[in-house]
Write a structure and sequence with these properties.
139 residues; alpha+beta; 4-stranded antiparallel beta sheet
């Protein structure tokens, strides 16, 4: 089943020069890049993107982190790319992410700052549709 998903290369990935390697892995997996843009997130975009987390203890630190530097926003397309990218990304905590995954190979342990885990990928077709509309309203 061909799908589209949103992938964000977070500020830590951009700051550490990992964007090219992560994009290489995405392309090696066979997914098409439909849209790609280096940009600075805004509080408004992040409020909409992370709306379901508002009020949770990690919400403001996550927003602050996502505002700390540029992100690479990507729309991918491919067979089961939502599930496939999340598998490629690895577990949220880079310390326990499997070798061979983006977070397992490239992630660093930042203590309690688990939001600094290089990438975000939509978790369902519904989330992908909503998130793509937020970051790429013209698609």
């Amino acid at each position: 089943m061909t799908q589209r998903t949103l992938v964000l290369l977070k500020p830590d990935a951009v700051k550490r020069g990992q964007a090219g390697e992560i994009i290489r892995r995405i392309e090696a997996k066979g997914y098409a890049l439909v849209a790609l843009e280096l940009r600075s997130a805004t509080p408004e975009v992040l409020a909409e993107h992370y709306a379901e987390h508002e009020g949770k203890p990690f919400y403001q630190p996550l927003v602050d982190f996502m505002l700390s530097g540029p992100v690479v926003a990507i729309v991918l397309e491919g067979e089961r790319c939502i599930e496939g990218f999340r598998s490629l990304a690895g577990a949220t905590d880079p310390t326990v992410a499997a070798p061979g995954t983006v977070r397992g190979d490239l992630g660093r342990d930042w203590g309690l700052k688990v939001q600094q885990n290089l990438v975000h990928g939509s978790d369902s077709p519904e989330s992908a549709e909503r998130e793509i509309a937020i970051w790429f309203p013209h698609l």
